[in-house]
Design a protein that fits this description.
Layout: E1 11-12, E2 22-23, E3 26-28, H1 33-46, E4 50-53, E5 69-72, E6 79-83, E7 88-92, H2 97-105, E8 115-116, H3 129-135, E9 151-157, E10 163-167, H4 172-178, E11 187-194, E12 196-197, E13 200-209, H5 210-222, E14 227-232, E15 244-252, H6 265-277, H7 279-292, E16 297-299, H8 313-320, E17 324-334, H9 338-352, E18 356-364, E19 379-389, H10 392-411, E20 415-416, H11 426-432, H12 436-446, H13 455-465
Parallel strand pairs: 3-5, 4-5
Antiparallel strand pairs: 1-2, 6-7, 7-11, 8-12, 9-10, 9-11, 13-15, 13-16, 14-15, 14-18, 17-19, 17-20, 18-19
Helix pairs in contact: 5-9, 6-7, 6-8, 9-10
């Protein structure tokens, strides 16, 4: 894993794992659907393939095309239309969550009431709305389906350069393919989101063990909690590893949001360093902070935003003496299987020396709208940040780690998320996504020239083509 040439304007990499340095032949930043259509026409005539990038947080190569053209959606931004009556907002696909949040906050009543986003990814904020649609993301809602539920409509430029307005009624097949389709079926240029009334919620925090977790989530839902998660201990030398965790839920309440008690950037840097060098101390500090916020009130939108430190790993690399980063994996199991699954993961990590830097458990409701569907049933979702050394051995180790984790989830009737890496074997892909061969066949039928062909798509196509179903 050679260090990327950061001064190369045609080189892009993902923001978090930094494991996808990719040099493109050209990078274009269209400002309208018509300019996107023109770009796709030119690419088709030139025999070039195109990938579409938003904020570049995916880690499986979905937004890059080695030697191809990169369509950077950053100029497709801003609010196009806001329907205050129905709670619908149309934004450019390159719009980031903080910009949307600022727009909505400026239009709240003095009481704080107004429209708010329903869910977004947590852990970072600078994601694009188009990327959220392409990956069919989710947040930490306790009773929410993936992002598809929040989408009213979108504008899509298909590989043949045609511009379509897509919703469930007008083009249901295209809607189902494009949402969660990672850019295979067209370039999304704007998205109309369904907003929710902004509410005040109270954070309730406790320390519990994995054996209590399923019942705790069920009780939180019964109590009316809207959001929640479980952030677990990460020290494999401790009996608490993937067992003891901070359980936080957010219940609707009266009143106004409190002045937020937050960790500073410096405190976050210290915590991230400790997560690599003294994991027990890291969890102790983190849990102490969270317990101190018990009872704090937040806006239902505000608590979904946080701090992400770009380039945080540079200082950690200097301390560790090697280049590295974290690769994320997201695994799903039936909700009642969460305790045995965490126990199996803990045993697996200890046996193989897998270095967990952070982990959390969330909940997700099933959806039945998209074709490349990951939320096939109600899941418990385990997110793991795994430390990776940027050398050949590190690459081999993390590939083996990712495949073992997927096997453990599949053994319990579970699944995994495609966004974070491309290490899954063909048999794992087909087990978790039974329709994946049919979806790729539809892709080839709709885009026979494979104009929209990211590195992720090409690797997926070749892997499945080379392995009999």
């Amino acid at each position: 894993m050679a260090a990327p040439q950061l001064d190369d304007p045609l080189l892009r990499n993902d923001c978090h794992s930094r494991l996808n340095p990719t040099r493109h032949a050209r990078i274009e930043r269209p400002r309208s659907p018509e300019q996107v259509a023109d770009l796709l026409h030119r690419a088709a005539r030139s025999g070039q393939r195109v990938a579409v990038a938003g904020a570049q947080h995916a880690m499986g190569g979905q937004q890059f095309a080695e030697g191809g053209w990169l369509l950077d959606s950053c100029a497709l931004d801003g609010v196009v239309e806001f329907d205050r009556t129905r709670g619908l907002i149309r934004c450019g696909a390159g719009t980031r969550w903080p910009a949307l949040q600022r727009f909505l906050a400026a239009r709240r009543a003095r009481s704080g009431e107004g429209w708010a986003l329903r869910q977004k990814q947590t852990g970072a904020d600078d994601f694009s709305l188009g990327g959220a649609l392409a990956a069919n993301i989710h947040g930490r809602g306790l009773d929410l389906r993936p992002f598809v539920e929040d989408i009213e409509a979108f504008t899509l430029v298909t590989p043949d350069g045609r511009i379509h307005r897509v919703d469930r009624a007008v083009a249901p097949d295209t809607f189902a393919l494009a949402v969660g389709g990672y850019g295979m079926f067209g370039v999304v240029t704007d998205v109309t989101l369904r907003l929710a009334p902004r509410r005040v919620v109270r954070r309730c925090v406790s320390l519990i063990r994995r054996a209590e977790l399923h019942a705790a989530f069920e009780q939180a839902r019964a109590d009316g909690a809207l959001y929640g998660d479980f952030q677990f201990a990460i020290d494999p030398d401790s009996r608490d590893f993937l067992d003891l965790g901070v359980f936080s839920v957010y219940l609707p309440c009266e009143g106004t949001p409190d002045a937020a008690h937050q960790l500073s950037a410096t405190q976050w840097r210290e915590l991230l360093a400790l997560a690599h060098t003294d994991k027990t101390a890291a969890f102790r500090r983190y849990s102490e902070f969270y317990l101190a916020t018990n009872g704090q009130r937040y806006g239902s939108d505000d608590h979904q935003f946080g701090v992400y430190l770009d380039g945080y790993h540079d200082a950690i690399d200097a301390r560790l003496g090697h280049r590295g980063s974290e690769l994320i994996t997201e695994l799903y199991v039936p909700r009642a299987s969460i305790a045995p699954f965490l126990a199996v993961l803990a045993e697996d990590c200890r046996r193989h020396g897998t270095d967990i830097i952070y982990g959390t458990v969330r909940q997700i409701r099933a959806e039945h709208e998209t074709r490349l569907r990951w939320a096939r049933q109600d899941w418990a979702c385990v997110v793991l940040n795994v430390h990776v050394r940027h050398d050949a051995d590190g690459g081999r180790r993390v590939r083996a780690d990712m495949q073992r984790f997927i096997d453990r989830a599949l053994e319990l009737g579970g699944s995994f998320y495609l966004t974070y890496h491309g290490h899954a074997r063909p048999d794992q892909l087909r087990a978790a996504y039974p329709d994946i061969d049919e979806v790729l066949a539809t892709k080839r039928a709709r885009d026979p020239q494979e104009v929209l062909a990211s590195d992720w798509y090409c690797a997926l196509r070749d892997a499945l083509r080379g392995a009999a179903a």
